[in-house]
Design a protein that fits this description.
The chain is an all-beta fold and about 270 residues long. It is built from one helix and 24 strands. A six-stranded antiparallel sheet has the order 1-6-3-4-5-7, with no helix packed on it. The chain has a five-stranded mixed sheet with strand order 11-16-21-22-24. Strands 2-8-12-13 form a four-stranded antiparallel sheet, with no helix packed on it. The relative contact order is 0.17. The N terminus is likely disordered.
Length: about 270
């Protein structure tokens, strides 16, 4: 039960929340319920995974003195001068994520298309003015898949639970997903059938627009004429369609050279 003194609000990414000793902040976001408790000497974090009947569309947040049942264990973190301040920072997945179009998509020779992709975020729980990280957790339990020519050549990836869409309006708005426009350019002499492709999620920073929606820079994939390789380019900024944006989380990894990566064709398209 929620205390009568608690009020339910929409959660906000990267917002500084202030807790007093003894208070607990509860969140319900994506497929996760989270309690963060401040005590005099420590932080306590409790996590419960949910199995809702439908795709969750809201982020509820309350601050009060309510804790879950003892069946949900806590993780404990020693405090180090954090002044009771909390921030929740989004992060893209730590492995590449395999995306499927809503239906298999054929791109004619020489043609280009844009697919909009919403991918599940990880949440970093950070404290103090310096945003020291206590822990991070996925907001939906990720499933794994293999992308490559065979079991020896390829890489382990996450499998996206959502589909890529050709129309931006068709992408569901979820506060626990970030939106990435993916441009696929077919430079081959024949049509390209896109049944799935690998999105380099560890290389993508997260931005927030003036409506609170999260975006990443666009990704461009070019299928080369020799059919053995494809190049991948990450834009330096967010698409103009997103509107005014601010950076709220850097990429997990940086590309070694520039913003273009050439990879084996089946390491991108499977």
């Amino acid at each position: 039960m929620t205390d009568v003194t608690e009020s339910q609000r929409d959660g906000v990414w990267a917002h500084p929340y202030q807790l007093a000793s003894g208070q607990t902040q509860q969140h319900e976001l994506g497929y996760t319920r989270l309690w963060v408790t401040l005590l005099d000497m420590e932080w306590q974090v409790r996590v419960q995974k949910l199995v809702p009947d439908t795709d969750p569309i809201t982020w509820y947040e309350t601050i009060g003195h309510t804790l879950p049942s003892g069946a949900i264990s806590e993780q404990r973190f020693v405090r180090t001068g954090d002044n009771g301040m909390l921030r929740y920072i989004p992060a893209m997945a730590p492995l590449p994520t395999v995306i499927k179009p809503h239906q298999p998509l054929t791109i004619p020779a020489g043609a280009t298309c844009v697919i909009y992709v919403g991918t599940t975020l990880w949440m970093k729980i950070c404290v103090g003015d310096s945003a020291s990280e206590l822990m991070e957790l996925p907001l939906a339990t990720p499933s794994m898949t293999w992308l490559g020519r065979n079991t020896m050549q390829g890489e382990l990836c996450y499998a996206s639970a959502t589909y890529g869409r050709l129309a931006l309006e068709a992408v569901p708005k979820r506060p626990w997903r970030a939106l990435t426009p993916v441009t696929i350019i077919n430079r081959r002499q024949k049509s390209l059938l896109v049944e799935r492709f690998s999105l380099p999620t560890p290389l993508l920073p997260v931005y927030r627009n003036d409506k609170g929606r999260l975006w990443t820079p666009g990704v461009t994939v070019e299928s080369d004429t020799d059919m053995n390789s494809a190049s991948l380019h990450i834009e330096s900024s967010v698409t103009a369609v997103a509107g005014p944006c601010e950076l709220i989380a850097p990429a997990r990894e940086q590309m070694a050279r520039g913003r273009r990566l050439v990879r084996a064709f089946d390491h991108i398209f499977g």
